[in-house]
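Repro:
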Amino acid sequence: MILFPAIDLKEGRCVRLKQGDMEQATIFNDDPAAQAATFEAQGFQWLHVVDLDGAFAGKPMNAGAVEAILKRVAFPVQLGGGIRDMKTVEGWLKKGIARVIIGTAAVRDPAFVREAAKAFPGKVAVGIDARDGYVAVEGWAETSALAADDLGRRFEDAGVAAIIYTDIARDGMLQGINWDGTIGLAHALSIPVIASGGLASMADIERLCAPDAAILEGAITGRALYDGRIDPAAALARLADARH
């Protein structure tokens, strides 16, 4: 079970949104690279980064901040937001990103996901962002008619490294993960699932240690770390205990 601390980038700064609303952004750090270094020093094994401006623009918009993070830390970084063509995938992997996350393009252009996953085994994940079980696209501005598990099934044989599943209604709201939806998706797919959206407290960390949650590859937490609701050392120690 991997606990991923999250850095969401808006205009070069580290922010958190409520339910994906760019108008409801709270700035937590003006120096994302310093924040990444803090997470690494706290003992996290991976970092989850989202280029929020890129998700809306459809192309990388916070490249400088991402590159500064890569220069500063040694642990692996996965990146999503604005990754919609092979050139962008190749560019980020060459710069040192360990895994790219394809979101909107997975709905619009599934052939692109297959091509990328085949070209870069283990380095391409699909981000499924859902509202009431249906996939949202374009930085969550639109909801499609596609069910989350149906989208996941499209990539069962594509070599996708992971599915990052976000319940938009809970993202940034500190209400806890949608356990039923997330664990249900993990059972429906053979691709590893990472939970995102709503991890809010040490009680949620405890819930991650329950036997039925063992099917998940990991979980992403953002606001709860910045707000001090989740203690990094205690959370990582509890998850390590659960593994043994």
